[in-house]
Design goal:
Elements (H helix, E strand, L loop, with lengths): L10 E2 L5 E3 L1 H25 L1 H5 L13 E2 L12 E2 L5 H18 L3 H17 L8 H6 L13 H19 L3 H16 L16 H12 L2 H13 L6 H8 L31 H18 L2 H17 L31 H14 L6 H15 L17 E2 L14 H10 L2 H4 E4 L2 E4 L5 E7 L2 E9 L6 E8 L3 E8 L8 E4 L2 E2 L2 H4 E2 L2 E8 L4 E5 L5 E3 L11 E6 L2 E6 H4 L6 E2 L8 E5 L5 E11 L16 E10 L11 E2 L2 E2 L6
Parallel strand pairs: 7-11
Antiparallel strand pairs: 1-6, 2-8, 3-4, 5-24, 6-7, 8-9, 9-10, 10-16, 11-15, 12-13, 12-16, 14-15, 17-18, 18-19, 18-25, 19-23, 19-24, 20-22, 21-22, 22-23
Amino acid sequence: MSRTRKDRQFRPVPVPSVTLGGLFGARQDAVCQTTAETLLDRCVAAGMLTAIDVDQPSPGVVIPYHSMSPTVPATEQRARVSTQMFWDSDLGKSIETVAYSLYRRPNPALEARVDAIVALYAKLQRADGYLNAWYLRVVPGREWTNLRDTHELYCAGHLIEGAVAYYQATGKRQLMDIMSRYVDHMITVFGHGAGQIAGYCGHEEIELALVKLARATGKQKYMDLAKYFIDERGTEPHYFDIEARRDGRDPKNFVMGSYEYSQSHKPVRQQDKVVGHAVRAMYLYSGMADIATEYNDDTLTSALERLWDDLTAKQMYITGGIGPAAANEGFTGYYDLPNESAYAETCASVGLVFWASRMLGRGPDRRFADVMEIALYNGALAGLSLDGKTFFYENPLESAGKHHRWVWHRCPCCPPNIARLVASVGSYMYAVADDEIAVHLYGESTVTAEVAGTNVRLTQATRYPWAGAVRLTVKPEQPTRFALALRIPGWAKGARLTIDGHAVDLDAVVVDGYARLERQWTGDEVVDLELPLVPRALYADPRVRQDAGRLALMRGPLVYCTEAVDNGAGLNALSVTVDPALARESRLAELGEAVAIDLPASRDVSTGFDGALYREAPPASEPATARFVPYHLWDNRAPGEMLVWMRGGKTGA
């Protein structure tokens, strides 16, 4: 979308419509082979099935409460939370991951396990449609009393997304019907009518989930409820103040002491700075973007563009990681991007991919797709190991060797989040309007979609992101006129495009960073796109004090890093001063044939200090070769140090 509005509506293709090979095909195979089952196994081990099984006694509080604020008295439990409160969301995301895995690889045993979980939820659901394990089994009778803190609607949102995915994968409607009854109940609860509450969730998620449910069922009332939650957020009198007083709580005693934490400090259309908890922000903006697309709402689009510029120009890591602070799992001040202590939660980068993809709903625009690709390949994909068994929660850009992937977490939100993204990534690659298909991401794949009233099969033959050649074949069922929009990444200097061997003048056809090819497609055309993958150095704005005097290396959309397993300990002693375009490249079998980059460098040595910590003369240096590997693959081999931002002068000058 450019600064001028567009009324076209682009929607992602369904996950089953895309078959992947290459890098993401291999990662999806890992999800099918290990991750999907691992998620269910670890949810069971945590006690999540016992929590929803009405034939067993309630487990009570398994994970202890923790205070939401240091000022809350220890005796005041109503303002405290337990991560157990959102177990429903972990099960919802795990079901969604399994559903996507079934598209690629049928697994009757795994499907039967999900069916059993769905049956438990069917028995748990109250007669009026209400469904939340915490409130039905642990603290019955307190539903809808603390939307601010306890993730009630957030849990519903993830179960809705799981329900839609499972229906699309298997044709089984039970869970979608369960969640539809729950949403029908919500419609009676929320609003400004007599006996209703004008509330919304402290942790956004329900909004984008309702859009998915509306699209899957064709029911406008679900879309309207999503719009209601967005329109209501941050209005005065503030609902979270109202519910706190109603519940006997002091409205001033809550986490972080500011409604900026949950992006409810002002109405969404008035917000212009990205603040608070990073994952909540990304989910809110994703829902806003969906509603902007569905209702052609320029007021939401304007707010989202302001927020987008604020995030990407002042608060985003080079990896697409966001939210530098552990204290609030979110944002601090402008240009505050520490490397070793970076929080950069996997879920936050996943959320950025969600938001970016939805910003493309009103038309292709490279601004959003480029960031989507960076966040996907770097900030998000780092969260899942190559074998699909272990995970990152935090994603620092520097490690002294003590940061490693873990098997599970007391707050296990990230494992199923990155797993469901990887398993559904095909739907982020393509989007379709009435008379246009847009290719947002490149990778070996085949998609089938209806464009201009005709079924069209589009195939990408490529080794991207390891190689930059992309061959696209377009096969409509019958000759049809429509547009094919191909993203030309901002980093792809010297990109070339041909149709049947004839060069296309990119300057003449590129609109908002996409080459828009409108013509009568017969099925005989071959489109070749060449994206030069030349290693390049990037430098941070000097106001990012942590990166002063340093450079980072990128190749295409991939951020690269050094690891001790290749370079030995003491990575900060390395300096790079050679133009990265002169690097040697090789393929690493142990990292899935990833491309490694070797650059001449120098290494400072500690010899000559004679036991002293400091001296007047600078350290001597010796020639070295620095090996760089894709950041998303670090900590998949021997443990050790890692570094993204390297010492070095300006290169290529």
